[in-house]
């Protein structure tokens, strides 16, 4: 066992143990669908954290679902679009699909999809972190706010629909030719320079690209690439979060020419 592995194992074991010893308080997530269409929210825990709300469900336009997570939960949220679970053979979503299942049950989704990444800690002295990431690409705008609302704890949605400004080489289109998602340059080209790997594995070496700048302009509050700076990471420790798909202005942005 090498050094990194043992540190990682130690970390996982101690967080599990900590979870057992300290019967912590829960955090509430309100998942809101403000899109004018059905969205299938999905949730995947990081290693060592439990699956919550079965990992996925359907959420009609205008609805809110309340779910609970342990106060030390780590994981991600995203939205799936264009799902059809009616035939068991070809049940799949056009974006964010998790192996064709309605309940993702711990599995992550197929990129590109806008990701809300959450790392919660208990206690006022230990802040919780969260961000919205386009590092794997974009499918829907998402906002994150706390309840009660605090402007310091807010991650805004986008000022433009990324799907509308997505260059052809990054586009994901459906059968009718509509752009339904936009890959990140890392996902599309899988090269070290866009993925901040290899000799580009540092903030000094991995600079914004023409593609990440396009994401940043559309969604200034999100991570547009791995070493985005100033880092759009928010640190707040509320008891409740509101995660909204297609927050305010979305319809206007989408339909105006
Ligand atoms: C805390 O959340 C878990 C799911 O993550 C749930 O099973 C449990 O009932 C919740 N506890 C309370 C007190 O709400
Ligand atoms: C969910 O995943 C767990 C752990 O992998 C497994 O034991 C369980 O059977 C799965 N549930 C469903 C409904 O697939
Ligand atoms: C995006 O919109 C917000 C208001 O919703 C505004 O404060 C901000 O300056 C805009 N950012 C850009 C880059 O247009
Ligand atoms: C393609 O996407 C557009 C926009 O989301 C949607 O209106 C249309 O119904 C989709 N077409 C198919 C075949 O799913």
Which overall shape is indicated by the principal axes computed on the Cα atoms? globular
What is the number of beta strands?
11
Count of alpha and pi helical runs: 6
CATH architecture descriptor text of the domain at 17-158 and 219-248: Sandwich
CATH topology term of the domain at 17-158 and 219-248: Thaumatin
Description:
Keywords: Disulfide bond, Signal. Disulfide bonds join 35-246, 83-93, 98-104, 153-236, 158-219, 166-182, 186-195, 196-206. This protein is an alpha+beta fold. The protein has a domain at 17-158 and 219-248: Thaumatin (Sandwich). It has helices at residues 3-21, 162-165, 185-189, 192-195, 210-218, 250-255, and strands spanning 26-33, 40-45, 64-70, 74-80, 115-119, 129-133, 142-146, 171-173, 179-182, 234-235, 240-245. The strands form 3 sheets. It has a 5-stranded antiparallel β-sheet with strand order 2-4-5-6-10, with no helix packed on it. It has a 4-stranded mixed β-sheet with strand order 3-1-11-7, with no helix packed on it. A hairpin with a 5-residue loop joins strand 8 and strand 9. It is globular. Bound molecules: 2-acetamido-2-deoxy-beta-D-glucopyranose (4 copies).
Looking at this protein, list some descriptive labels:
Thaumatin-like protein; Thaumatin; single chain; four-stranded mixed β-sheet; 18% helix; 23% strand; signal; 11 strands
């Amino acid at each position: 066992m090498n050094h990194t592995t043992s540190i990682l194992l130690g970390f996982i074991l101690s967080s599990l143990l900590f979870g057992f010893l300290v019967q912590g308080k829960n955090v509430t997530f309100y998942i809101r669908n403000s899109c004018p269409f059905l969205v299938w929210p999905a949730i995947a825990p990081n290693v060592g954290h439990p699956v919550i709300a079965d990992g996925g469900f359907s959420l009609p336009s205008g609805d809110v679902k309340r779910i609970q997570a342990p106060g030390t939960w780590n994981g991600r949220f995203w939205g799936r679009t264009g799902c059809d679970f009616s035939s068991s053979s070809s049940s799949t979503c056009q974006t964010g699909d998790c192996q064709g299942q309605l309940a993702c049950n711990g599995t992550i989704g197929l990129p590109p999809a806008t990701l809300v990444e959450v790392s919660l800690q208990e206690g006022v002295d230990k802040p919780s972190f969260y961000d919205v990431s386009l590092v794997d690409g974009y499918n829907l705008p998402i906002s994150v706010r706390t309840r009660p609302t605090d402007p310091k704890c807010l991650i805004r949605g986008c000022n433009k629909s990324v799907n509308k400004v997505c260059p052809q080489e990054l586009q994901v289109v459906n059968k009718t030719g509509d752009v339904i998602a936009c890959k990140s340059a890392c996902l599309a080209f899988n090269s070290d320079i866009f993925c901040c790997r290899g000799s580009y594995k540092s903030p000094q070496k991995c600079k914004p690209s023409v593609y990440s700048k396009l994401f940043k302009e559309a969604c200034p509050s999100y991570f547009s690439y791995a070493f985005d700076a100033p880092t759009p990471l928010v640190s707040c420790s509320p008891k409740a979060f509101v995660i909204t798909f297609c927050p305010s202005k979305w319809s206007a942005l989408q339909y105006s020419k």
